[in-house]
Amino acid sequence: MELREKVVVVTGGGNGIGAALCRRFAAEQAAKVVVSDIDMANAEAVAKEIGGLAIQCDVADESSIQALVKQTVDECGRIDVFCSNAGITVKGGIESPNEDWMQMWDVNVMSRLYAARAVVPMMLEQGSGYLVHTASAAGVLTEIGSASYSVTKHADVALAEWLSVCYGRQGINVSCVCPLGVTTDFLDNDDPIHRYLHLHAITADDVAESVVNGMREKQFLILPHPEVAEFFSLKTDDHDRWIRGMQRLRQKLTREMKKRDAA
Question: Would you identify the family this protein belongs to, as annotated (predicted)?
């Protein structure tokens, strides 16, 4: 898809990858870029910079996404591309409280479902549309540190696959963006696991460039880090061997964390 003269909505557009996507879509001469964020000040700042439209939205609330879609259609006439980009992360494994798990589920997964419910019927009527999910390499590999992040990002990829299978022959394209480390607030320098991700980290602008190129080719999996494709191939070739390798990596990083805490 070429983005020129398209109406594009980006959730979580006020910072990080979302803001980079908004700037890149504007550079592609989109008809209008809707910068949506729960933080209206951030959304307005990005929208002012690119000549876009700022709309506040809490993606964990289905009615808020419905309102976002309605306002966009009222002001722009249609939606050609909907980027479900907003996401969160929390630390912890199985000991994480249920409230954290449910918040992760609502923001990282249900928000994608709410968006699809709101825009797919319209796109089917238009005969065209594009859904973009910002997932993570954790969705095709795993995330050693946060169990809820890994699980919800896997679910995000699975939903994107389902949408592509069901609507891909009806004019709706779907892409799932799965970066590894990106230099945003998500990376915690005090976490040895995230320090490992810094070794492969790219910028949010790099991710946005990959997204635009991937959309042109209508790629389902957009992998801004080429090495993710290699890791994914190793996983599918010999899943048990891959798990053993990840166990060793986790053990190494856990030891580093204990040494740091003891110092």
Answer: Belongs to the short-chain dehydrogenases/reductases (SDR) family.
